[in-house]
């Protein structure tokens, strides 16, 4: 039997997922299961500091624990956005997490980006960008 590229991808995904232990927190496990069922690629994840971290290529995505609250942020960004598990999985698969994040900033379910002191917002976002080794860009929602 000839192994096609798609069969190899499915087999690699299955082997990689066998080595991931279930998450100890049931709320995180539920969130991860909702995303994982739509993934076609392997995405490592772990729990640290009360957040579920999913690693998509060079981006680390941080998800919160509350069951009905689908919000996330990219580690080097400041604003939290709403996400749909299927769309986030698609963004991870296609390596378009930053574009998906920028799109979700405009979603009405995302947290409003209202600061009392705009200079503080700019300084904080510059700090996050510098810490991540990048410049401010369109995804910083200024």
Question: Please, could you describe this protein's structure?
Answer:
With 142 residues, the chain is an alpha+beta fold. It has a domain at 23-112. Helices cover 42% and strands 15% of the residues. The chain is built from five helices and five strands, in the order H-H-E-E-E-E-E-H-H-H. The chain has helices at residues 5-18, 26-36, 85-94, 97-105, 118-132, and strands at residues 45-48, 51-56, 59-63, 71-74, 81-82. A five-stranded antiparallel β-sheet has the order 1-2-3-4-5, with helices on one face. Strand 2 (51-56) and strand 3 (59-63) form a beta hairpin. Helix 2 crosses helix 3 (85-94) and helix 3 (85-94) runs antiparallel to helix 4 (97-105). The mean pLDDT is 80.
């Amino acid at each position: 039997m000839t192994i096609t590229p798609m069969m190899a991808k499915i087999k690699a995904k299955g082997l990689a997922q066998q080595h991931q232990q279930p998450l100890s927190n049931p709320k995180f496990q539920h969130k991860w299961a909702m995303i994982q069922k739509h993934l076609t690629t392997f995405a490592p994840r772990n729990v640290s500091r009360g957040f579920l971290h999913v690693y998509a290529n060079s981006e680390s995505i941080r998800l919160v624990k509350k069951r009905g609250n689908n919000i996330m942020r990219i580690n080097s960004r400041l604003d939290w956005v709403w996400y749909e598990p299927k769309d986030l999985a698609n963004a991870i698969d296609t390596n378009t997490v930053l574009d998906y994040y920028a799109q979700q900033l405009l979603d009405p379910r995302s947290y409003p980006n209202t600061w009392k002191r705009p200079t503080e917002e700019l300084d904080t976002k510059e700090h996050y960008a510098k810490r991540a080794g990048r410049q401010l860009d369109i995804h910083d929602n200024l």
